[in-house]
Amino acid sequence: MIEMTPAAQQRLDNYLQRMRSELRGTRSVVADEVEQSVREHIEIALADAPGPIGATEVIGVLDRLGPPERWLADEDRPAWRQFMDGIRTAPDDWRLAYLAFGMFLLSMLLLPSVGAMLIIPAMIASRAYVELARDRGEPLGARRWLVYPSIAVVLAIATGLLIIGPPLPFMAWVFDHRRYDQIFDVPHSGSGRMRFMAGFGAVVFGSWWILAAAFCAAFLRSIRFVFAPLLDGLRRQHFAVLAAIGAVVAAVGAILIYYRY
Amino acid sequence: MNDLSFDNWTTQLRKGLLELAVLNTIADAPLYGYEIVRRLSDVDHLVITEGTVYPILSRLNNSGLVETYLQESQEGPPRKYYRLTRRGRDDLHRMNQHWESLHHAIGSLRKERKR
Which of A58, A136, A219, B70 qualifies as a cystine partner to B78, CB 3.0-4.6 A? Predict the structure, then answer.
């Protein structure tokens, strides 16, 4: 056993602590075995030095051993450490993608209240990353898995709002009105009332879809920009289809309402 | 290739070859860890940080390509020696053959370019 000064011993203990921390959880490497070998290495390397051995000699040996953080091959590192290192050492252009994905995960974990607020910044970060990649002329590649989720979620919410939109609260407001049956001359029979409500809903929804389609077609470029790259293929024809469906639904609704006449 | 890419390339190449180098070092006779590190360090550009060798030895031991035994030393505590197992010897033979053919292939490509 070699004798060291307290300062040298402290250096060695710190180094071994770093090494243990780095080797923890490794797959094919036995941490205790490596530590034992490194201790043996240090003892042999310092065997001829006159004792007690000072910090300078110990540092010389440790420097040649090198930082434990650089010892392991990637395949030997635990998956979580590879992930963390990926974030820490990834090129700048990857960090924004990781940040976006991190915010997305957090928003999903903190649903509904805080999460709902976080999904917007996550989406903005994702979009910023998409723009960055486009400016550099780089394909997104595997990074799309980091940036697409938040854009897709916001797009799904926006699509849901577009479909349901104001008609649902408007219909609820109308049917809550005490005299709506008199205003609209609603039949008194149960089936007549049901037919009127279905027809009224179809007219309201159909009309809304025609309006929404016209609005979206007018702002097509802005919509494509906000939800790029997921909506890069969006065309005016898609909104023409929505308007056509709206027209058909509204027409069916009108027929249902006036069928009794 | 810029300096950063070249450094990265040499690092990856070195890491890939180090296992082969370790196995070749103990092919003729068992050696203890420190001695293996010393011999590899004498080869230019092969070992930048000596500690890299120990996780490789552990992995090779774990995968059954090498085995260890303790031997008393006159100069201190017992030393852990590493030697090839039968499987390690077979694998090393195949690895050396593969390395030879790769080396030959790269050499041929370079000759073609020089013509």
Answer: B70
Angle at alpha carbon of residue A254, lines to A250 and A255, rounded to 5°:
120
Tell me which residue of A251, A256, A254 sits closest to A192, measured CA to CA: A256
Q: Provide the pLDDT confidence category of residue A93 given band limits of 50, 70 and 90.
A: low
Confidence of residue A168 (pLDDT cuts 50, 70, 90): confident
Query: Can you read off the two tokens belonging to residue A251?
Result: 């027409």
Q: Is A37 on the interface with B (CB under 8 A)?
A: yes
Nearest residue, CB atoms, B58 vs list A33, A44, A70: A33
Neighboring chain A residues of B41 at a CB cutoff of 8 Å: 64
> Which of A57-61, B43-47, B52-56 comes out lowest in average pLDDT?
B43-47
d(CA B79, CA B31): 9
The CA distances from residue A168 to A191, A215, B33, in Å, are 21, 19, 76
Contacts of A33 in chain B (CB under 8 A): 58, 61
Confidence check: pLDDT of A233 > 80 = yes
**Sign of the torsion angle spanned by Cα atoms A6, A10, A11, A13:** positive
- Give CA A139 to chain center in angstroms: 19
Are B47 and B40 contacting, i.e. CB atoms less than 8 angstroms apart? yes
A52 near A3, Cβ under 8 Å? yes
**Edge-to-edge strands of the sheet including B31-32?**
B31-32, B76-84, B66-73
Token reading at A191 = 């089936």
DSSP A231: T
Here the ipTM equals: 0.85
Residues of B in contact with A72 (CB under 8 A): 55
Dihedral angle, C-alpha B79, B80, B85, B89, nearest 10 °: -70
Cα(A58)–Cα(A63) distance, integer angstroms: 9
Predicted TM-score of the model (pTM): 0.56
Q: Are B82 and B33 in contact (CB under 8 A)?
A: yes
- Two tokens, residue A146: 């980091």
Tokens coding B24: 């070749």
Q: What angle do CA A251, A255, A257 make, to 5 degrees?
A: 115
